[in-house]
């Protein structure tokens, strides 16, 4: 199989693009990588799907030949995940800061702060949030899936629940599914909050977080 096709290069068989882009000076490869990420992120917001994302379009936005993308990303999936990773990492930082702002000896309150920070991020960054949670992505094998950037969020929720258990709280239901339950519940509530035609009162999201924790944890 042609190597370009194997990697998902939709320019295979097409003539190389001519471009007037000025090369970055030596040592500025990271700058080009960032430009590729910005272009891919903007296009993903428009097409909403990894399959629909055209690497030729990404290259055209940046002003490079399509094969140049592979100097920074092994395939289209790696590029899409790198775009998403920036936003998941930012969300993780905000949740960690919220955790640190709560009393250190109260893991439940720390988790509450984290979940509220998640809601604030989603409300303040609707385009980024849609990109993270609504981009259709190509299925990968289980081993590769472990490297998905969403794992950063799930591992953080798992750790926060573990701290609650160590403090004497019991997680209702299946422990392995609890981080997913938290995420799904938050995402669903935020999605409804965003689309329903009512006054946008973020206090409703805070109350939902309180209700969710009351349902999930008990002593």
TrEMBL record:
Residue ranges: DNA binding: 54-73
Stored SUPFAM superfamilies: Homeodomain-like, Tetracyclin repressor-like, C-terminal domain
A Pfam family that the UniProt record links to this protein: TetR_N
Domain HTH tetR-type: 30-91
Alphabetically ordered keywords of this record: DNA-binding, Transcription, Transcription regulation
Biased composition (Basic and acidic residues): 1-10
Keyword Endoplasmic reticulum: no
Positions of region (Disordered): 1-29
Protein name as annotated: TetR/AcrR family transcriptional regulator
Source species of the chain: Streptomyces eurythermus
């Amino acid at each position: 199989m042609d190597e370009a096709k194997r990697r998902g290069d939709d320019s295979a068989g097409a003539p190389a693009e001519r471009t007037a882009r000025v090369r970055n000076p030596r040592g500025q490869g990271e700058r080009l990588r960032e430009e590729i990420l910005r272009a891919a992120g903007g296009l993903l917001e428009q097409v909403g799907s990894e399959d629909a994302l055209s690497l030729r379009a990404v290259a055209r936005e940046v002003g490079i030949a399509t094969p140049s993308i592979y100097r920074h990303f092994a395939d289209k999936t790696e590029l899409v995940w790198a775009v998403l990773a920036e936003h998941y990492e930012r969300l993780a930082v905000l949740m960690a800061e919220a955790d640190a702002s709560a009393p250190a000896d109260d893991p439940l309150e720390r988790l509450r702060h984290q979940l509220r920070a998640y809601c604030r991020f989603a409300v303040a960054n609707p385009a980024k949030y849609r990109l993270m949670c609504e981009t259709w992505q190509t299925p990968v094998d289980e081993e590769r899936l472990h490297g998905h950037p969403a794992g950063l969020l799930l591992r953080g929720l798992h750790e926060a629940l573990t701290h609650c258990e160590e403090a004497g709280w019991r997680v209702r239901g299946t422990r392995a599914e609890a981080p997913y339950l938290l995420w799904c519940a938050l995402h669903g509530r935020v999605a409804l909050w965003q689309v329903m035609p009512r006054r946008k009162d973020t206090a409703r999201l805070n109350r939902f977080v309180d209700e969710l924790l009351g349902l999930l944890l008990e002593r």
